[in-house]
Design a protein that fits this description.
- This protein is 34% helix and 22% strand.
- The chain is an alpha/beta fold.
- The strands form 2 sheets. Strands 6, 7, 8, 9, 10, 11 and 12 form a 7-stranded parallel sheet that branches. The chain has a 5-stranded mixed sheet with strand order 1-3-4-5-2.
- α4 (108-120) packs parallel to α6 (147-161) and α4 (108-120) runs parallel beside α9 (252-267).
- The longest helix has 16 residues, at 252-267.
- The radius of gyration is 20 Å and the shape is elongated.
């Protein structure tokens, strides 16, 4: 399922002119040609159909025309597909729950992979946490990196997966500030993945009977995991439940994806 996320709404005539990196994505990744149909995500989150009206190789621009029929066509002519607005209304649980990933900062390449996978899984907020075991070089690289690269990774992941969730990465912070931000939320529940056998691996047991939560937090360590003091601070100050999965030792990028999937399965 793919979609193309617009950075500006169509003009009054329903035309959308695409250039720059978006042109290269449509031309080189999706290989569009005149007449192709593309599902576009508008700024208000609605998904509509458009057709490729013009491909200008000389000026590196593609013109899309919004279709009068806004239903996404389910046939071979449609080269993209995302979650339609009507589908969100029918299944509001897609957006009712807000997932937060508190990722203790690993090496830059691993962090980008985690951001990409978390976006595809529908995580709303990614919070990079400066932890005790985070390498200084990795922290400095993220603090000094251009946000445009991460935003591009998020956008491409949403386009590839068709996710209707507008994923955002917050600024890197230390654990106390991350917990301060998390504790602003009401009706929340959180889980911290621990390498030590200090928590139950059955997440369903941790949910109070009959209670539903709007905000779900997941904490994942960096390459060195989490320190005992960090786990203690998370469970006491952030009310996170320690979770220990009886599986093989996972790399941090694998643990993030595994943890998100496990929690989403338990919540849903």
């Amino acid at each position: 399922m793919r979609q193309f996320i617009l950075e500006q709404n169509p003009d009054k005539s329903g035309l959308i002119v695409v250039n720059g990196k978006d042109y290269r994505y449509l031309r080189q990744v999706l290989r569009v040609k005149p007449g192709d149909m593309i599902s576009v995500r508008l700024l208000d989150g609605e998904l509509k159909n458009s057709t490729v009206a013009l491909v200008d190789e000389k000026s590196k621009k593609i013109t899309l025309q919004l279709c009068a029929d806004t239903q996404v066509v389910q046939n071979d002519k449609s080269i993209t597909r995302g979650v339609q607005a009507s589908e969100l209304e029918e299944n509001k649980s897609i957006l009712q729950k807000e997932y937060w990933l508190f990722q203790f900062i690993p090496k830059a390449q691993k962090f980008e992979q985690i951001v990409r996978q978390a976006t595809e899984c529908g995580v709303k907020y990614i919070v990079p946490v400066i932890g005790e075991y985070s390498e200084k070089n990795s922290v400095n690289a993220l603090l000094n990196s251009k946000t445009e690269r991460i935003e591009r990774i998020i956008k491409e992941a949403r386009q590839q997966s068709g996710s209707p969730v507008e994923t955002k990465m917050l600024s890197p912070v230390k654990l106390d500030k991350a917990l301060e931000e998390w504790n602003k939320n009401q009706n929340k529940i959180g889980f911290v993945l621990s390498e030590r056998d200090d928590g139950d691996g059955d997440i369903r047991k941790l949910f109070p009977s009959g209670k539903k939560f709007d905000k779900i937090g997941i904490v994942v360590g960096s390459e060195g995991g989490l320190s005992p003091l960090e786990v203690e601070e998370l469970t006491k100050k952030g009310l996170f439940h320690a979770v220990h999965f009886s599986v093989n030792i996972l790399r941090c990028e694998t643990a993030a994806l595994y943890g998100i999937a496990a929690v989403q399965t338990a919540v849903n």
